[in-house]
Amino acid sequence: MKFGVAMVLASMIACLPAHAEQFAPYKDELFAYPGIIETAEGGSFRVVDYDEMRDINARDEEPERRVQAKYVSLGVRKVQQELVANTDAGQVRHVAVGKTEGASVIVVYMHGQGGDRRQGVNDFTFGGNFNRIKNMTVAAGGLYLSPDVASFDDAGAARIAALVAIYAARSPKAEIYLACGSMGGTICWRLANDKTVAPRLGGLLLLGSLWDEKFLSSAAFKRKVPVFMGQGSRDKVFPAERVRAFYGLVRSRTKDYPIRMVVFESGSHGTPIRMTDWREVINWMASR
In a designed cystine with 220, which of 37, 142, 146, 225 is the match (CB 3.0 to 4.6 A)? Predict the structure, then answer.
């Protein structure tokens, strides 16, 4: 009997997803959510405690400019490159961190209006959160990309799709996670229906970003690609109530759709970029 149980357990373990945990622990105690105020929909919706004095002023040496040294590890810069990709859609300047071939995972960050490729690789701003995702991706044998977004329309999306396609071809086993800050979300939603990118998507992360009901007819939606939406409760650019309504719309169309939303109580437009727990989100997506 014991032997039979052991065989069943072994069989179950063998069937588990190969990338159930994409990222190993990395400074988790520093980047964990400071407290959960509310949980709903079986944990898919949460309100997280956020306090500017604690989460910016007490965390940064220079508020919003330079986080305390304990939050970052700069050795990752050794595998960081400034590159230019010449594609049929146009030239794309970008920063690549990690393995540009044979990567286990590819994470791409798209900045919003007024930003550029440097935002997503700045080690010290946004509380060191970009340094964390860089380190975790490299430790996992993956590739992290931060490209210039030339425009937030079809042409801009075509350039990013072309860039992603180049690296996807070099790493055929890698799932692709797209993270978009603010207006960068227009690129995320467009690529959710891109014929070259959508089949490889492991998840979409919208950070202080917008919604798009066209997603409900996209290839990514049909594949049930996981979606995470992080929003500050006081976001004046993309109101949290509107994002919550979209989150509810997705759930109403497919009740078991893998979508999560975190509202940072009293947070503003940029708060999700600073506070989102990359490891928790991407490991959840990988487990799907």
Answer: 225
pLDDT value at residue 280: 98
- In angstroms, the Cα distances linking 275 to 71, 95, 126 are 13, 22, 8
Q: Return the structure tokens found at 121.
A: 């690789």
Q: Is the pTM of this model over 0.85?
A: yes
CA dist list (Å): 70 to 26, 51, 52, 56, 186: 12, 20, 19, 14, 34
For 153-178, how does the pLDDT look when each residue is reduced to its tens digit (9 = 90+)? 999 999 999 999 999 999 999 999 99
Query: What is the average per-residue pLDDT within 73-80?
Result: 98
Question: Domains of the chain by range and CATH?
Answer: 20-287 (3.40.50.1820)
User: Which region, left, alpha or beta, applies to residue 53 given φ > 0 means left and ψ of -120 to 50 means alpha?
Assistant: alpha
The Cα–Cα gap between 49 and 42 comes to: 19
